[in-house]
Design brief:
The structure is a single chain. It is built from 16 helices and eleven strands. The protein is of the alpha/beta class and 411 residues long. The chain has three domains: 51 residues, no CATH class; 247 residues, 3-Layer(aba) Sandwich (Rossmann fold), CATH 3.40.50; 99 residues, Helicase, Ruva Protein, domain 3, CATH 1.10.8. The strands form four sheets. Strands 4-5-8-3-9 form a five-stranded parallel sheet, with helices on both faces. It has a two-stranded antiparallel ribbon with strand order 1-2. Helix 2 packs across helix 3, helix 8 crosses helix 9 and helix 13 crosses helix 14. The relative contact order is 0.10.
Length: 411
């Protein structure tokens, strides 16, 4: 009677398994192979925690060159972001046994008017990063226990961006937008709690500095029974941005000048000339504190940079120069209909003039262009005989004056 073949590990017979692999003096079934594979992956994972990840280091100039393709101007902010990301990679590559010098992370805060490109800068940066990246909104955050999202929900988004791989999330980058919306509402203590202001700032402190946080993988309060995931934020780089509307007045008071109107005698000193059109370039941590950020939070955001207000020349470049400029987007839309569209230089100047008038920044350009070009996008696809179309100043002015923007001008 022939000897029955059994698995040397679990004892299953050949008829009880899908596959039996034979060696010199032993056999192994497909179930034991799968189990051995899982054990191997777990062991490699544990050992991999002590090893540092390897990155192909992207130099700061290369990062800025990529940003230049999409974002016009804002050289100071782009340099700061490029250096911060480069140093973040170097921190992650630092050997764990090098205990003599530990590189601290440099979280960033960007200050800039609405429409100057803070969020767009962060989104563009995310395209070339080799680490998980997420954009979170500070406006929805509240203290724990109140209606809204907990601070830990920021890390939930980062975890999702990392496909729920904890180690990858722990070396990611988080952009927190609308930081100014959680500023302290008043210097005077109130009977009511500031649940979406100072309370959120205090909750962010440990997150920015570096601590182990229990993160709900599916969001905070909708799934109360879910298992928490522990994430260490020590190696996560935080970049914050906000419009800080009204901070120019605080800067002007500190510099003994005024953002508008006549300036005092002190402002006319020959040794220090103040650019009143761009007061944000003089922003300091003192101004952020006066605006409503608590000193502990400012201390954890050591790198402070600003975005310049957009001039007419910059707005015109935004319309034409970047890789995904507005005029190029419209050109692509009409090209799909077999129509060649061109924007006359005078039409571009008119669009820029209106954008400056309404003070909406780069966002205003899109609204104005839509008001001008909607009729053409409605009519031309049905007129198959038209293969070329030019938008000049007269056409732009007529269409714009028919739009709702004209009512705003009249008001």
């Amino acid at each position: 009677m022939p000897q029955q073949i059994t698995c040397s590990f679990c004892g299953r017979t050949k008829k009880d398994v899908d596959l039996m692999i034979s060696g010199i003096n032993a056999h192994i079934c497909n179930f034991c192979i799968n189990q051995a594979q899982q054990i191997l992956e777990e062991e490699l994972k544990i050992k991999g925690k002590t090893a540092n990840p390897e990155f192909s280091l992207i130099k700061p100039k290369e990062i800025k060159k990529h940003l230049d393709e999409y974002v016009v101007g804002q050289d100071d902010a782009k340099k700061v972001m490029s250096v911060a990301v480069y140093n973040h990679y170097k921190r992650l590559m630092q050997r764990d046994d090098d205990e003599e010098i530990s590189i601290e992370k440099s979280n960033i805060v960007m200050v800039g008017e609405t429409g100057t490109g803070k969020t767009y800068l962060a989104r563009t940066l995310a395209k070339i990063l080799q680490v998980p990246f997420c954009i979170a909104d500070a406006t929805v955050l509240t203290e724990a226990g109140y209606v809204g999202e907990d601070v830990e929900s920021i890390l939930t988004r980062l975890l999702q961006a990392a496909d729920y791989e904890v180690e990858a999330a722990e070396r990611g980058i988080v952009y927190i937008d609308e930081l100014d919306k959680i500023a302290r509402k008043s210097d005077n203590p109130s009977i009511t709690r500031d649940v979406s202001g100072e309370g959120v700032q205090q909750a962010l402190l440990k997150l920015l500095e570096g601590t182990s946080v229990n993160v709900p993988p599916q969001g905070g309060r909708k799934h109360p029974d879910q298992k928490m995931i522990a994430i260490n934020t020590e190696h996560i780089l935080f970049v914050c941005g906000g419009a800080f509307d009204g901070i120019s007045r605080l800067i002007a008071n500190r510099l003994n000048t005024q953002p508008l109107g006549f300036t005092g005698a002190k402002a006319n000193r020959s040794d220090f000339r103040i650019d009143k059109d761009n007061l944000l370039q003089y922003v300091t941590a003192q101004d952020l504190k006066q605006y409503g950020l608590i000193p502990e939070l400012i201390g954890r955001l050591p790198v402070l940079t600003h975005l310049d207000p957009l001039s007419s020349e910059t707005l015109k470049m935004i319309l034409t120069s970047p890789r995904n400029a507005l005029t190029k987007q419209y050109h692509k839309l009409f090209q799909m209909e077999g129509i060649e569209i061109t924007f006359d230089d005078s039409a571009l100047d008119y669009i820029v003039d209106k954008a400056v008038e309404y003070k909406l920044g780069a966002r205003g350009l899109r609204s104005i262009c839509e008001a001008i070009i909607t009729d053409a996008m409605y009519e031309l696809p049905s007129q198959t005989e038209i293969k070329a179309f030019t938008i000049d100043r007269d056409y732009a002015q007529k269409r714009f004056e028919k739009s709702k923007f004209k009512q705003l001008t009249a008001a």
